[in-house]
Amino acid sequence: MPPPHGGRLINRVLKGKERDRRLKEALELPKIKLPSEYIKDIENIAHGVFSPLEGPMIQEDYLNVLENMRLSNDLPWTIPIVIDVDEEEIKTVKEGDNITIICLEEEKLIAILHVEEVYDYDKEKHVEKVFGIKDPAHPGVAKTYGMKEKLLGGKIDLIDHSANPYYKYTLWPVETRLLFKERGWRTIVGFQTRNAPHTGHEYVQKTALTFTDGLFINPVIGRKKKGDFKDEVILAAYEELIKHYYLKDRAVLAILRTEMRYAGPREAIFHAIVRKNFGCTHFIVGRDHAGVGNFYPPYAAQEIFDEFPDLGIIPIFFKEFFICKKCGGMANEKTCPHPEEYRVRFSGTVIRKLLQQGKKPPKEIMRPEISEIILKWKNPFVE
Amino acid sequence: MTEEKTKSKNFTSILIPTSLYKKLEEKVKETEFSSVSSLVTHIIREYLAKLEEEKEVFSEEEEEEIKERLRALGYID
Ligand SMILES: [Zn+2]
Fold first, then answer.
1. What ipTM describes this predicted complex?
2. N or C: which end of chain A has fewer CB within 10 A?
């Protein structure tokens, strides 16, 4: 199993008496409220999902990530993990102070942040570097433009967790690592998804599984864009797929609670690092990984891996699969010599349209059990 | 900070034999690397990553606690 990113699995979850003591302290500290999307990432940091990060980035790391796609210690890292605040919210806070983080939606005390730095940042530079464009039609760009003016950097200590409707599916890296060991898996391939599975996804996973010991299916659960599958639909669909079409001791389903950034190539590297922390040795990167609309060339998220000989997890690249009527099954441009007229492509739009009309997609495209499960929802898509 | 100053702060020189440098200079032309420096940086990073060692991330006592939760969630019997 690969060592965690940076060599050490971060654990900043307070326990026992130490937790009681810090909780008392937290009640007296200045407080900031953060939406649940931020809280999830704070939990990820505390449990080592984002190892080696120990809190929101300080300026030196933030700028290095933008410029060089690396932390200031040269470790690969491509997505800024930051906390943005208004000046007003932190007017009594000095660098070196501790503050308490409250979950905005639940009004619940979550963590203490040791504020090492409060700093300004350039949103235009941020979006240009992370997303490669400045067009606010891109959801990540629009979100960045809406961020508050200052960033806080420092280390966090987790006191409590936010509400988690998917507790059952939530595993932390210490748990997945032990689980993989228990199963006797030496090579584990991670699969990132934000979709209910069609047969193309299944084929990719099983192809990778033919030369690894185990498959780690790790859907991203969190804020997504309109038209994406709802979280509960994705999970129910995968449960059903595993039940009918996978060997139980060869596949593990657990979630990653974070939002999609839609940062394409940079997010592919980030996704790989996170799966390395979970204990994966390999990571599947398909067509337009973490992309949105037509903002990224279809295979840019594969090419970017050339720049990281020190990532510590092996990417497995797939060309887009389709069904070729002449080949008589699943194929891609590397395996099928036949013209387009024989090929049936997997189109998210077409699948969505059929499901929205209450119709099952053809069984070659989606397993009937999966279609049935999805159709139990009145609207399986994010509104 | 100006671009130049950032550069000098973030980069440093190492000494390699001139003959080796010349050889690399020729090789670089056939690759996607923009310079000998970026090729050498790549090779060093690759080398350093290979030195990373496998190690357990939990102690024996923690192991039981973790197994308990995995059992409760139905991941292990
Ligand atoms: Zn064919």
1. 0.86
2. C
